[in-house]
Every structure is written in C-alpha cells, then in structure tokens.
Design goal:
The strands form 3 sheets. A 7-stranded mixed sheet has the order 5-4-1-6-10-7-11, sandwiched between helices. The chain has a two-stranded antiparallel ribbon with strand order 2-3. A two-stranded antiparallel sheet has the order 8-9. It is of the alpha/beta class.
Length: about 260
C-alpha cells in the first residue's frame, strides 16, 4: 500500500497574514502538521509499502520554513489553482500527478492534512485511514466532531421582513429527538486515489463520503485574528494536558535541535 501525505499551504491569506507559517505557541503553525506526519511514519511506516510527504505551495517562505523541519517533497503550485475560491481538490490532484511522475509509482490513498487544524493525534490519522481502507464503497473519509447546533432544532435563517425560521422544517421540541449531525473540522481527509483523480471529482462531496469522529475540542476556522488567538489558547491547554498531543511539540523541539 502506497500512501501520499499532502500539505496544501497557500501563501495568500486575507484574514490572517501568513497564517500557515505564523508563530503558534512558539513555532510556525505548519510545523504541527509536519510533526504529526513524521510521528505517524515513525509509528506506522513499516506497515505500508511506502509513505511519501509533499507540500504544495505557491509561497517560497512556506517552502523554506517547511524544509527546515524535515526532508519533504515540494510541488510549486501554479497560480491558476492558488486562488481564494479554488477547491483544494485541484491542488491535491496536481500534487498526485507530479509526485507519481517524479517517483514513478502509483498511490493507493492520499491523506490531506490542513495546516490550520493542529489539534489532532497520530491515532486520529491512523483510525481515519483505517476507516477508508476498510470501506471500499467510500471515496473519501474526513474528520468531524459532534455539532453543537442542529438545522432541524436550533439553527435558523432569515427571510424577508426580518422573519427567521428553522433551516429545516420540523416539529422537534427537544435536542434529544433530532438526528445527530456533525461539524467538519477541516483536519483530516483520506481519499481513495482513483476516485480523487477522476475528472468528475472536483470537491469532497462529489464522491461517497464517510466520517471519522474526533473528540470535540473548540474547532475553529482561522479566518481572523480572534480565531487565531482563541485557537492558540485552546491548543496551549490541550497540548499540555494530552500526552499524544504533547508528543507533537516534543518532536518539533527534537527535530529543530537535530537540525
């Protein structure tokens, strides 16, 4: 089984400047993603035929900082797939095509990790991968957390004349009555390679999707300064409390010392 880890990190960011390489708890944010990949390879690498790691970026600073941490493959992302409204799937496809030509191999699974979601463990990645491997009917498995809101119960949308209604019409009067729903936490995506490279696969929902549920930890999309600061506070607490998460920082320290 050949596995490719992809780390897609654009240089441009309107909400938080240079967020992918901005210092987060003392280290560039991208290091947390690279560190958990390295730990995954140390713990599970012998179980697979090969594991490769590639960063796809249009930013020289991002590439240089990433190279300082570990020896990884680099794909320079062209401008036409680096825009704010471009699906990341296109960047991943571009990475696969280039890596397979470069290394003369075909991958079985692609694991894409988002740089701005540092709260994940090696076991999270391993379990998410296993769920995909054990379910051939799924094209992609992505990580989620339990949602604190439900469109059938306590989520509303506004219509004309300032009138609001529930997003989904229902007669539920208690949270326990509604069917569970989940928040995508933009952390881990495991794709079946052949599904992903299909011309009709342009976003994550173009295939059969499965989920891997992670623990609920204040999941935030870093779109502004407040998001960055709040995630840093949450992460500081969790990385100190949780042994598996703490290993990620310890590995960063060790790798920087060795380099």
């Amino acid at each position: 089984m050949n596995i490719l880890f992809t780390v897609c990190a654009r240089a441009g960011s309107k909400g938080v400047k240079n967020k992918n390489i901005r210092e987060f708890l003392g280290y560039p944010l991208i290091y947390y993603t690279l560190s958990v990949i390295e730990l995954f390879i140390k713990d599970h690498g012998k179980k697979y035929s090969s594991i490769d790691v590639c960063i796809s970026s249009d930013g020289k600073d991002i590439i240089n900082i990433a190279k300082n941490f570990m020896d990884i493959n680099v794909i320079n992302r062209p401008s036409e797939i680096s825009g704010d409204t471009t699906s990341k799937v296109f960047a991943i496809k571009h990475t696969i095509n280039n890596m397979e030509k470069r290394l003369d191999k075909k991958y079985d699974y692609i694991i894409d990790l988002d740089v701005t979601s540092p709260i994940r463990t090696v076991n999270d990645i391993y379990e998410c991968l296993n769920k995909k491997v054990n379910n051939n009917n799924l094209d992609v498995v992505f990580s989620v957390v339990d949602s604190r809101r439900n469109p059938s119960f306590n989520m509303v949308e506004e219509f004309d004349n300032n009138i609001v209604r529930k997003v989904m019409d229902s007669n539920f009067i208690a949270r326990q009555q509604v069917k569970p729903c989940y928040d995508m936490n933009a952390s881990i995506y495991v794709y079946n390679r052949d599904s992903l490279i299909n011309d009709n696969f342009n976003n994550v929902f173009d295939g059969n999707c499965g989920i891997y549920k992670m623990r609920d930890t204040g999941i935030l999309d870093i779109d502004c300064e407040n998001d960055f600061e709040l995630l840093e506070v949450i992460s500081d607490y969790l990385f100190k409390k949780d042994k598996e998460l703490n290993m990620i920082i310890e590995n960063i320290i060790q790798m920087l010392y060795l380099n």
